[in-house]
Amino acid sequence: MERHRHRYEVNPTLVPRLEDVGLEFVGRNTDTSGERMEVCELKKEMHPYFMAVQFHPEFTSRPEKANPLFLGLLRASKEKT
Question: pTM above 0.70?
Fold first, then answer.
């Protein structure tokens, strides 16, 4: 289970405009306050590795078992070198 932060949120009325220019909301959470955007990313054609999350992946990452978000960043970096 990830620890979430909700100080800042995506305005739901802006989601269609953001998606129209290439931002993909791939993680959504529906709760009593309405739909929240939890994870977004850009396609690889637009950026080698762009991901934004509303949780703290560093809290579940360990030296022997990195969080998948960090592994993805390292793999994308390796591909670019």
Answer: yes
